[in-house]
Amino acid sequence: MTAVAFPNEQLLEEIREVNLAYLVLAQHMIRADKAQALYRLGVSEEVASVIDQLTPAQLMRIAGANQLICRFRFDDDMVWSLLTSHSKAKSTGTGAVAGLHANIVMAGQLTDGQ
Amino acid sequence: MRIKSIVSESRQIQRAIALIKLGARLQVLESETDLSYERLLRLYKEVQGESPARGMLPFSTDWFMTWQPNIHSSLFLNIYEYLNKTTALEEIDAIIKAFELYLEQVKAQEIEPMLSVTRAWRLVKFVDAGMVTLTSCGKCSGKFVTHTYDLTADYVCGLCEPPARAGKGKGIVRKLEEPVTH
């Protein structure tokens, strides 16, 4: 019966876990070094302040949704093609530095509409 | 210059230690802190266990334009600009944090870091002086270090179009051709 009533129970549990892990990690990074955390997370300073202030109870409540609260930070084809062609480039003449190409393009993009 | 506040002095010492640990030359410390030369020298020996290297700092912008160094410098400068735009940091703190992130990123790719913190600091000073800037590549839209007054209307980066000899050396830093910038 329960399997029929909640067919996605397993899935929801996994989403909750990812959300919670993400929020806890984000909070930890923001508290350790805010400037570097903004770079790693790709969120604005305002969002970072909100995450920083969340209580454990709030974290649990936010995590327990049926949606993931983090999403892909890059949505242009160039970044994806650079990321996926990385292994190919490594074997050709341009050598190891080709792996940094995606990183350079990614570091140059401010996310969150800034 | 005499430092009045103990809190400010302690912050400057912390900053100097962070820079020494990252391998900064003494000239960087002299320029970025108000601590006396003698104290910096003692601090350096205490942290590194040896005397600092002597000699002048590299002063040319050309190094940053050669192929591999250009890629490393561009990664660092993009990170530095990112930090600068998202948070209010003092310049030297932004350099330290950006350089740490650069080292992390390069090591994650299993590449030897090519940029030293002293070079990174010089690079930021060159940007401040308007001698060097970031230019968007017409192909990948990534931003790369170029001379400010290069003609960059249809600039293509050294990764989209590597020079003919790129990557042929066995990890030795060679003077490679500059990417075509005209």
Q: Class by helix and strand content of chain B? A: mainly alpha
The general outline of chain B is elongated
* Count of helical stretches of chain A: 8
How many H/I helices of chain B? 6
Low-confidence stretches of chain B: 170-182
Report the end-to-end length of chain B measured between terminal Cα atoms.
Answer: 47 Å
Q: What is the strand arrangement across the widest sheet of chain B?
A: 1-2
Oligomer: heterodimer
Low-confidence stretches of chain A: none
Mean pLDDT of chain B: 87
Q: Biggest β-sheet of chain A, characterized?
A: none
Q: Identify the biggest protein-protein contact and residues per side.
A: A-B, 27 and 35 residues
Average pLDDT value of chain A? Answer: 83
DSSP strand (E) fraction of chain B?
5-15%
Global morphology of chain A:
flat
* Rg for CA atoms of chain A: 18 Å
The separation of the N and C termini of chain A measures 49 Å
Order of helices and strands of chain B: HHHHHHEE
Q: What would your notes on this structure say?
A:
The complex is a heterodimer of chains A (114) and B (182). Chain A is 66% helix and 0% strand. Chain A has helices spanning 2-5, 9-32, 34-41, 45-53, 56-63, 77-84, 86-91, 100-107. The longest helix of chain A has 24 residues, at 9-32. Chain A starts with a helix and ends in a 7-residue tail after the last helix. In chain B, 47% of the residues lie in helices and 5% in strands. Chain B has 6 helices and 2 strands. The chains are: A mainly alpha (114), B mainly alpha (182). The interface between A and B is medium-sized, with 27 and 35 residues.
